[in-house]
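Notes from hallway chat w/ T.B., transcribed later so I don't forget. T.B. wanted the structure written out for a chain they're using in a teaching module, and asked if we could keep both sequence and structure tokens in one place. Agreed to drop them here.
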Amino acid sequence: MYSTRYRSFVFILCSAVCVFFLWLRTAPAIADDSQGIDTVLLIDSSGSMKQTDPKSYRKPAAKMFLSLMGEHDRIGIISFSDSAEVLADLTGTDRKEGLQRLNRAIDQVHSRGAYTNLQAAVSKAYDLLKQSPRRQKIIILMTDGKMDVGDREKDSLLVTELKSVLVPDIRKNGVRIHTLAFSDQSDQELLREIARLGGGSYLMARSDRSLHLDFASIFERVKSPDAIPLINDSFVVDDSVREMTIMITKKSAGTSVIVVTPSGGELTARSHDQKIQWFQSPVFDMVTLLNPDRGKWTLRFNAKEGNRVFVVANLKLLTSFDTFFATKGRPLKIDAWLEREKDQLNVREILDQVVMKGIITLHDGSRIELKLSDGGTGGDVTAQDGIYTAMFQPLETGDCRLQILAEAKTFKREKEFRFTIIEPVIEKDPGIQTQTGGQETQSLIPDAGRDEPVKWLLVIAEFLAINLSALALWYGGRQVLPRIWKSRNRIRGGK
């Protein structure tokens, strides 16, 4: 017979083991940084890049993307041509050493490959992301070519495998794929289809000099930063802005741009405060300032387009718009609201002075302006709730750009989205993509109800925790607790 003390020890031990396994069950959720994003950049290094990107503008554009990402984000770099080569595993961007390592990896990208194996590139990126605990994972595929391994029959088989097996499997496991074509020689149809099946965006770069604009567009879709609109090369910083990053496209390669402060001071790449971070490239500059002066800022010697002012501010413009591919003829909902200190702003005295609108630029350059209203009509669900809404019915296919603007006397905010209008598509596998009310339901978080990879360690931990809990309760009820009760009675009886 075992003593009561020993049995009590066994009871406590079983309970401790249960707690440990329950902690193990929940630990991955704690480690899962919902704010951080894991991104793999797939950069084409085939020989054709010598013609399409002779000055390697894709390198500073990729470096700009690194600099824009947040402290919780990680990025991997893969170069591909005949095969795919990992130049940098997933690396954090929050430390100087991490950024240096990633920048060195980008510098290793060349233009000497004989072929373009898109399937190998996407597969290698997926391998890097499979073990990631992050909820948000993306692949950015940039190429100027098409599937080409030197054998047309094999090319066709690889394309079929890519579209019907690999990309759907990647999407099913919560990874989005964004594609960027930057040449008329690229297989635009394939890249558009990969993006559509992969739940991401498709972009066609206008030229090698505009690659940084495309990376900035992907950054906006992924991180949804606030921005201040530029009007005639000027913008106004309000009291809520704590940090500002200006992306300035140069008028011509090598031009020196000037940033004029509200007090009239001039900042350049060679002459600026040490607290200011200034990234310089032949085609664009990126300037980051903490606590910028309030008032009107002006840019000089810029390209007049493609400039962006991203801000970190207490006053934010938010929207639920998250569409990469819209269907022709089906209404598209566009909404927006303001948030102050993480709380939705619903003060009528302020909102009555705000003008909310959406501007859609179609593929042919024509513009459609929509007024977002909060009157309970035109797609708006509830009147006077601070959420402004408008409906847009796309009538033509093609690439589009949406700007959502909030304007008042004391502040201005904007968000920009690029999306593609396509003909109606009937999916063979409804689990790949769904449509709701004519608008595709897309989120950076994996869709609810989709199958996740079975994590057997967690399954076993949960099984053991449940059974050990039952054993501990049974044992405690049968052995330990009656003895404790008898001891209590003896003490009360003075025995």
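Follow-up for T.B.: The radius of gyration is 28 Å. Might be a good example for the class.
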